[in-house]
Amino acid sequence: MRIINNMTCDFCKKNVATVHLIRVQNDSVEKVNICSECARDFSFFSEDDFYKDLSNILSKIFQSDQESIYDSRTSQSLASIDIKKNKSCPFCGTDLKSIKKKQVMGCPHCYGEFRSILLPIIKAIHRDTQYRGKIPEAVPRKVKLEKSISDLRKRLKREIFIENFEEAARIRDKIKQLEKNIYE
Amino acid sequence: MNEPGSLTPGAEGSSGSSSQRSSIILSSRSSISRNLSNHKFPSSCSGEEKDQLIGIIKNSSLKAEDLSQLCFLKLSGMTKVQRQVLLSDYQIDEDFISSLSGRAIMIKPRTSIKEDALAIPLCWNDHLKIQCAAPGNTIGHVYEVVGAIEKQFESRLNFSFSKEWGYLTSSPASLGTALEISLLVHLPALAISPDIAEFMKNLSKIGCTVGGYSSSSPEVTGNIFRISSSRTLGKSEEEIVEEMNAICLNIVDEEESARRKLLKKDRLGAKDNVFRSYGLLKYARILSFEEALELLSILRLGLDLGIIGKIRDFDYFEIINMIGDAHVISSFEMGDRATEDEIDLKRAKLIRDSILED
Predict the structure, then answer these.
(1) Residue B151 to residue B153: CA distance in whole angstroms
(2) B69 vs B55, B62, B83, B113, B279, CA distance in Å?
(3) Is B36 helix (H, G, I), strand (E, B) or coil?
(4) Which chain A residue has its CA at the smallest distance from B45's CA?
C-alpha cells in the first residue's frame, strides 16, 4: 500500500520521502519512509523493482524474517529423502538411496549435486540456511568480499525491519564501499 | 549456609571467583570437523583410501612445528585398554572406536589432567576432527587452541568449503562452522530438584543437546551432564562461543540456587545422604564405576555445602578420570583376564587411598 504525505526520509533525514510503505502484520504496524534517492541506493532493490512495484521491495525487506520461521513439519533427517527419482553423485558415485540409508553424504560434491533435495532438510535441522562463520584463508579476496556484502545486506534488512534507520544508512554506506573494493 | 571454604583444587582457568564454580563446570571441550576437498568422506572410502588420507594429513603435520610434537597412533595398533584410556583422557566419544580399521589419532602427550587434552581423530565421520578439552570453564581457551591447530593444517591442506553452507561435513547436521562446544557439568542438587525437567527443556529449546557422562548411553551417572551446542549454521563461531559462555553462567546459577533450596528445605536429609555416601565409600569393598560416581558426587556436594569436614578435599573430575575400568586395569597392571569383582575391589581401594585415608 502507498501513502503520500510530506515526511523526510528515514535514512538520509534530508530529502522528502516519496515512498511510504506500511504493512500490518498480526497486531503490529510497520512503516518505512524513503526518498527515491535512498531507495535506489539500497543494492537489494533492483531498479526494475523500484519502478515496477513497490510491494516487491516491501516483500524483500520482510522476506528474511518470513523465511526464518521454523517449519516443524519438515523432517530433520536424511531418512526423509524421496528416492523415487534416484540419482548419483558424479564425483563419488554415492546415490540418494545410499545417503538415505547411511544418513551421511558421500563427498563434498554431493552437496552441490543434491542441493535442492538437501535444502529443506538442512533448513529443518539448523532452522537457518545462511552460513555466518569464518572463511578459509585460501578463499580468494573477491569471494570474501562478496560474502561480507551479502552478510551486510542481511543485517541491513534486519535493521530496516526494526526501524533502526540510522544504523541501516551506515550499513548501506559500508556496502557501497565494499562493492567499490571488489572491482578495484 | 556454611561457606565451602577455600577448597576445590584445579580451578585454574575458571572464569568465576566462586570456588564452587569449578566443581560445577567440570570441563569444557571444543571441536571442529574438517574434510579435504576433492576427497570422499571416510564412510564411502575403502580401507586403502582411508590409509592414503591419513598419510596425507600426517605428512602435512610433519612440516609444521606446532604439529610435529603430536603423537600419531593407529587404533588397530592399540590394545583395548589403551583405547579406552585414550577415550577417557581425551574426552572422545565412544563411537570413534566402533570401527578400528582405517582410523588413527594424533594426540598431544600430557602428564597431568590439568593440561589441555588436545586430540585429532582421523577418518572418523570426517577426515579430521580437531578437539581440545580442559578442566573448568575454559570455553574461550579451548576454542582458541583448536583454532590455532586448524590454522596450521589450513596452510598445508585444502579444506572443502562452500560459500553457501560453510565447511562441508559428512553429516548435514554439522556443516557450517562444524564447531561444537560442550560442557561437562556436575549438577547434584539440580538433578534431584523438580526444576530439572524445565531446565533441560529450556536448554534444548535454545538448541543445545544434553547427554550423560558416557557418550554411549543416554543414562546420567554421578549427576554429570554433557551439554553441547548443536547448531552450526546461521551463527558465527564467536556467537556460538558467546552463547555457550552465557549458558555456562546460567547453569552455575541454577545449580547454586538448587543447592540453596535443598539446604533450606531439608538440611538434615542432605546431611544424612552425604554421610551415608561417605560411609559406603569408606567401608564398601567392591564398588562399580557407576556406584562410585554417584557416591563421590554426593560427597563432593557435601564438601561444597560445608556439611562434611575432616575429609581430604578432592577434585571430582580428576577422580572420575582415575577410576574407570580401563584406568584401574592399567594402573594396577591387571591384564585382560581381570574379573569385574577384581576391578571393583581395586577401585574401592583406590578411592579410599586417594581421598579418604591419610
Answers:
(1) 5
(2) 17, 9, 20, 18, 46
(3) strand
(4) A106
Check residue A54 and give its pLDDT: 53
Q: In what order do the strands lie in the sheet with B128-135?
A: B71-74, B104-107, B117-122, B128-135, B25-34, B179-186, B224-229, B208-211
Check if the beta carbon of residue B206 is closer than 8 Å to that of residue B235: no
Task: Return mean pLDDT, chain A.
Answer: 74
Note whether A92 contacts B40, CB cutoff 8 Å: yes
Q: Quote the cell numbers at residue B287.
A: 564398588
| Residue of B32, B232, B286, B170 whose CA lies nearest to A107 | B170
Rounded-to-integer distance, Cα B22 and Cα B136, Å: 5
- Cell numbers describing residue A10: 528515514
Report how many Cβ contacts below 8 Å link chain A to chain B. Answer: 106
pLDDT in tens, B237-266: 999 999 999 999 999 999 999 999 999 999
Contact (CB<8Å) B235/A133: yes
Is residue B24 within 8 Å of B187, Cβ to Cβ?
Answer: yes
Give the best residue of A81, A91, A134, A150 to mutate against chain B (max B CB count within 10 A). Answer: A134
* pTM attached to this predicted model: 0.77
Is residue B125 within 8 angstroms of chain A, CB to CB? yes
Spatial distance between the Cα atoms of B239 and A121, rounded to a whole number of angstroms:
23
Residues 6+ away with beta carbon under 8 Å from B350: B322, B323, B328, B331
Is residue A75's pLDDT more than 70?
no
pLDDT digits (tens, 9 = 90+) for B186-245: 999 999 888 888 898 889 888 898 888 887 777 788 999 999 998 999 899 999 999 999
